[in-house]
Amino acid sequence: MPQSWTAFGNALERIGQDLVELYWSEWTVAQLGLVLVAWLVAQIVGRFVEKRLEARARSIKGNPYLLRLIIAMIRRSRLLVLVVLLFIIRLALVASGVPDDMVALVLMLTGAWLVLAVLTRVIRNRALAKTVATIGWIYVAVQVLGLSAPVSQALDFLAFNVGEVRISALLILRAAVVTAGVIWLALFISHIIEGRLQRSNDVSPSGKVLFSKLVRISLVVAAGLFALTATGVDLTALTLVSGAVGVGIGFGLQKVVSNFISGIIILLDRSVKPGDTIALGDTFGWIVDLRARFVSVMTRDGKKYLIPNEDFITQQVINWSYSDQNVRLDVDFGVSYKSDPHQVIELAIAATRGIKRVSTYREAVCWMTEFGSSSLDFKLRFWITDPQNGLTNVRGQVLLALWDAFKENGIEIPFPQQDVHFRTPLEVRHSAPERRRTDPD
Q1: Is 317 helix (H, G, I), strand (E, B) or coil?
Q2: Could you report the per-residue pLDDT of 120-163, keeping only the tens digit for each?
Q3: How far is CA 149 from the centre of its chain?
């Protein structure tokens, strides 16, 4: 290990010497002065340009990714102006026959940072975008400075052995960059494919989710294997790792695997799909999303429940919109024995016609169901087509319409009454109120 650190220090010393030999001359200070002047001018001009162009750019409608790139370019107006000024200065130096190596170097590094900073704006995570841009710029800088060989040699000196395998900092860095890049590319391609599937009308909603997940998993796995192969990792060495994963699944990941397999079964049998209105236990709502581990259900009160996929396989699920959106609801009510049941039936059916959510898919029906203890009992049945908008509220509207109709036509809605019978005669006595005694003074 000490020899590795000594070699690493020697490599860094050689890098510094190479930089001095390549870019230090009597004209270097003058060129750095011109770069400083160009930077100051770019700060003033760029600020003026940025304020004028950003407001106009936000009025552009079209591809969101293109708009994001345009906004990113405008917000880096100072950097863009600096690149233009450095390019003009370099042309002037070349025309004058004066050395321009330092200006050319700063121009290339500044232009590379501008391009990378703009292109990485397609990544929505800003921290990740800055990280990618920084790593890319460091790589470009090493190539531009001609330091790829000594830097690679310095990183290769930082190594350690695991058995017969030698692992160096260069190998780790190369594997991380290649793996991250390939997996990001796989996710980007899967995102494009998912967007195409979502816009297709020939595939069912559950089929869209299933194909999207299969495409994403396949691309990520293929990208990971390609990255490992490209970085020189022997895939046969993964046998031990796969065995450890199998043991982990057997002891600690049963639920995760069970939910994953249950999710695939749900997508294959199409028992539920995004947009379905379901009831599972005490949860009533509509399905927002199907994930690898859970189903996202939104309720009427705005709460989102993440229900494990396994529950949809092992428990009883009511799917209100499995075959279609038509749902039948019942409302029970009773009227007094003085009422005409034929008139009650007609009024009840007519009351549902004035409610917007009651569907005309089928005509509402009303049946007399029982001679109750204090009322004639009826059941009113009607249909709705939007169960995701709630059931209690539409039942409440129907009950209010029944109340108005019965009140207008003089039909009473009874309440329970009881008669009390005494087996022996009941004697009621009235006693005179007792006078208050007053004490004499």
Answers
A1: coil
A2: 776 777 777 788 788 877 777 777 777 667 667 666 666 666 65
A3: 43
Regarding pTM above 0.90, the answer is no
Q: In what order do the strands lie in the sheet with 327-335?
A: 327-335, 376-384, 365-371
Within a 13 Å sphere around the CA of 263, how many CA atoms are in the beta-carbon half?
A: 24
Among 188, 185, 194, smallest CA distance to 223 is for 185
Residue 162, H or E segment: strand 159-162
For residue 315, give both structure tokens.
């428990």
DSSP calls for 190-208: HHHHHHHHHH-SSS-HHHH
Amino acid, res. 318: I
Give Cα 92 distance to the centre of its chain: 52
Q: What are phi and psi of 196, to 5 degrees?
A: -65, -40
Of 96, 95, 93, 117, the residue nearest 105 (C-alpha):
93
DSSP string across 254-295: HHHHHHHHHHHHHHHHTSS-TT-EEEETTEEEEEEEE-SSEE
CA-closest candidate to residue 355, choices 376, 385, 379: 385
What's the distance, CA 160 to chain centroid? Answer: 41
Q: How far apart are CA 68 and CA 428, in angstroms?
A: 93
**CB within 8 Å of 102: residues ≥ 6 apart:** 23, 27, 28, 31, 32, 35
Q: Return the DSSP state at 358.
A: B
Question: CA nearest 334: which of 403, 418, 251, 262?
Answer: 403
CA 90 to chain centre: 48
Both tokens of 436, joined, read 């208050």
Q: Are 358 and 328 in contact (CB under 8 A)?
A: no
Residues 382 and 358: beta-carbon distance below 8 Å: yes
**What's the CA gap between 349 and 341, in Å, rounded?**
12
Q: Tens of pLDDT along 210-260?
A: 777 778 778 877 877 777 676 666 556 555 556 666 666 565 667 777 777
Q: How far apart are the first and last CA of the chain?
A: 119
- Do the beta carbons of residue 377 and residue 413 sit within 8 Å? no
CB 23 within 8 A of CB 101: yes
Residue type at 348 in one-letter notation: A
Residue closest to 384 by CA, chosen among 413, 352, 340, 415: 352
